[in-house]
């Protein structure tokens, strides 16, 4: 099929699909196909102009399994020691943890986590979705597991819920939820002190968790994001691993 041939809606030539998925320039993609290094739904295809639906196609490219996504949304279990910046400085960037095709697609982090913060990070090349997820008007809840230097009191939680003033804004910022937690699974009304706080925020200000905790007289020693919207970090996704998010609606309120 010639590349000048009109294709059905949602279809692309195989070489163009590989290019859009991040497998290299078109001549590179043509070469991979002509060398018999590309399988589509289990069958080797050697025609770069073969047409297929562009989304949710099962490929194997030079031995690498790949499910095509016209718009990419992935979750990453961010380990400590990585920056979310596209131009990292003192620390390696989180993009180093992604496969080369996704790096070529220029995925943007949905919000930022400090280099010493771990947990759930979303990345996407879908501009409208990125705007929805980062817009303060959307009120996307984000849950953080906080380890503090000093015991967390109920009075601290009450202040966080009521709102605290940060140094760059006279308007108080309130947590959506704040509760003391015990790592051993004890209920929230358990007796005894705890250094652990579960904090849910709707905003995304710079160093917000650390500054809010400091505003109530404590200090963050460890910080981990456990969920965004209705998407929780899977227990079987190890630090440094990534996974497709198949339904973007799960991260929207």
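^ Assign residues to that structure.
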């Amino acid at each position: 099929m010639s590349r000048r041939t009109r294709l059905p809606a949602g279809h692309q030539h195989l070489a163009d699909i590989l290019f859009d998925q991040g497998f290299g320039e078109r001549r590179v993609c043509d070469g991979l196909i002509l060398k018999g290094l590309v399988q589509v739904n289990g069958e080797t295809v050697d025609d770069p102009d073969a047409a297929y639906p562009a989304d949710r196609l099962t490929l194997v490219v030079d031995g690498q399994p790949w499910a095509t996504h016209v718009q990419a949304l992935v979750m990453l279990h961010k380990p400590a020691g990585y920056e979310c910046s596209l131009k990292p400085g003192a620390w390696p960037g989180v993009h180093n943890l992604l496969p080369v095709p996704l790096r070529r697609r220029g995925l943007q982090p949905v919000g930022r986590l400090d280099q010493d913060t771990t947990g759930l990070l979303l990345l996407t090349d879908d501009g409208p979705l990125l705007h929805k997820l980062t817009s303060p008007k959307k009120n996307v809840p984000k849950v953080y597991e906080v380890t503090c230097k000093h015991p967390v009191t109920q009075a601290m939680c009450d202040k966080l819920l009521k709102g605290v003033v940060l140094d760059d804004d006279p308007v108080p910022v309130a947590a959506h939820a704040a509760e003391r937690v015990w790592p051993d699974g004890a209920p929230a009304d358990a007796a005894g002190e705890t250094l652990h706080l579960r904090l849910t925020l709707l905003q995304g200000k710079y160093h917000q968790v650390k500054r809010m905790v400091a505003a109530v007289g404590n200090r963050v020693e460890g910080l981990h994001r456990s969920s965004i919207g209705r998407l929780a970090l899977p227990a079987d996704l190890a630090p440094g691993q990534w996974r497709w998010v198949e339904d973007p609606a799960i991260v929207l309120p």
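The CA atoms of residues 108 and 123 lie 5 Å apart.
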